[in-house]
What we know:
Layout: H1 2-20, H2 25-42, H3 45-62, H4 65-81, H5 85-101, H6 105-121, H7 125-141, H8 145-162, H9 165-181, H10 185-202, H11 205-221, H12 225-241, H13 245-257
Amino acid sequence: SIQQNDTNKVKTLLLLVNELRKYDPQVALQYCNDAYILSKDLDYKTGELNSRLKQSYIFQRMGKIDSAILCIIDYKSLSETVKDTERIATSHFQLGNLLRSKGETYTAYDHFQVCLDLYKRINDTIGIICAYISIGIIHKNLSEFDSAAYYYSKALEVSEQIGYEDGIGSSLISLGKIYIEIKDYQNAINYLKRSIEFNQRSGNIHDEALAYENLGIIADEENDQDKAMEYYTKSLELNRQIKNEIQVNNLLNNIRIV
C-alpha cells in the first residue's frame, strides 16, 4: 500500500541518518526533518518520535544544546501523548544530560530522578544503571562524595547482577576516583585494581589506562615516586596503543614532574 511504502521511506531516511550523523551532521539533520514531516503527514507516531530523538542527539554532538533541548521537549510531549513509559523515561534522561552540560545541575538532577523512577517501574535494568551513574556524577560535581559513592555502588551492584560490562567498568573507575577525592586511598586502590582486572578481561584499554593513571596519582600523593612512575608509564603505554594523544601529553608532563 501507499501508506506502507511511505512508512518504509521514513525508516530508510532514518537509517541514512545513522550512517551520516558522524560524518555529515547537516545532511543527517535534513533527513531527520524530512522523516519527521513525512511521518506527521502520515500520522506515523513512531517515525515522528525517532526523528525528533535522533535530531536531539545530532544537535548535542554539534554542541547546539538549546536546539537539542527543543527537540527532546517535543519528543517528551509526543511520548506522553502515546503513553510510552520507556520513551518518556528516555526523554527525561536526555534532558538531564543536556541540562547538566549547560550547568543547570539541580534541574538536571530532577530529570534523572524521574527517569530512575520510570525505569524502575518498567524494570529497564540498563536504564536504571545509567540513571544511577548520572545521579552519581551530579553528586560528584557538587562535591557530595558520599552520595556519589552510594549511587555508583548501586550502579555497580545492578551491573554485576546482569553482567553489564559498560556499567561495571564505568562504576569501578568512578568509585576509585571518588575515594581519591576523599583521600580514602585504600578503597580507591581496591576499586582501581578491580577496574584494571575487569578491563583487561573485557579489552577496554581506555579505562585500563585511566585506572593506572589514577593509581599513579595516589602514589604521587603518598610520595612514592617509584610506584607513581611505574603506573604513569603503564598508562602512557596503553594510551599510545589507542592513540590518545591528549592523554599521552598529560602523562608525559606528570612523568616529568615525578
